[in-house]
Amino acid sequence: MKKTDSFDRLEKFVLELARYAHKDQVRKYTGEPYIHHLIGVANLVKEYGGSTEMVCAALLHDVVEDTSTSDAQLYQILSATELSEEEARKIVSLVMELTDRFVKENYPDLNRRQRKALECERLSQISPDAQTIKLCDLIDNSSTIRESGNDFARVYLAEKQDILKVMTMGNPQLYERAMQTGR
Q1: Which of 8, 24, 62, 66 is the catalytic position?
Q2: Which InterPro entries does this chain map to (predicted)?
Q3: What is the 3-state secondary structure (H, E, C) of the chain?
Q4: Among 11, 65, 71, 100, the one annotated catalytic
Q5: What is the pLDDT of residues 112-136, one digit of tens each?
């Protein structure tokens, strides 16, 4: 289990929210609970100086994409906590920036390469804070996927390099780390 000792009270609340939302999900290549990935991403964000809002968004970055939770529901839950409306809006905004838009369900006529190219272009436009979280996501995913040793690893790592070519506004140290991870 990945450590959560450095999380503050609010981050621990959001961790439990993420744990509940993703309770039945496991990592595709390891079989471990999906929450481990979210904690890994959040720990990296925290390690590199991310704000509480960024850590919370890292914990929730897949909640709209991979669960039945909507952005409106997420905002409603967050705004019922000690967060200000502005902080809750910031977290939801970051989560939505990190939520894939060009998915097969929405674009069935596009193949994976076409969808990933559009997603790559979209990611080039997201905020520096969202790019920083995405860099942490790429780092955590790369290590897991590379260790799986399957054919998908080559595809994923090539797609990651395409994203890194255009996503240049995030934390520069994380960018360098992401460039080195999975080569």
Answers
A1: 66
A2: HD/PDEase_dom (IPR003607), MESH1 (IPR052194)
A3: CCCCCCCCHHHHHHHHHHHHHCCCCECCCCCCECHHHHHHHHHHHHHCCCCHHHHHHHHHCCHHHHCCCCHHHHHHHHHCCCCCHHHHHHHHHHHHHHCCCCCCCCCCCCCHHHHHHHHHHHHCCCCHHHHHHHHHHHHHHHHHHHHHCCHHHHHHHHHHHHHHHHCCCCCHHHHHHHHHCCC
A4: 65
A5: 999 999 999 999 999 999 999 999 9
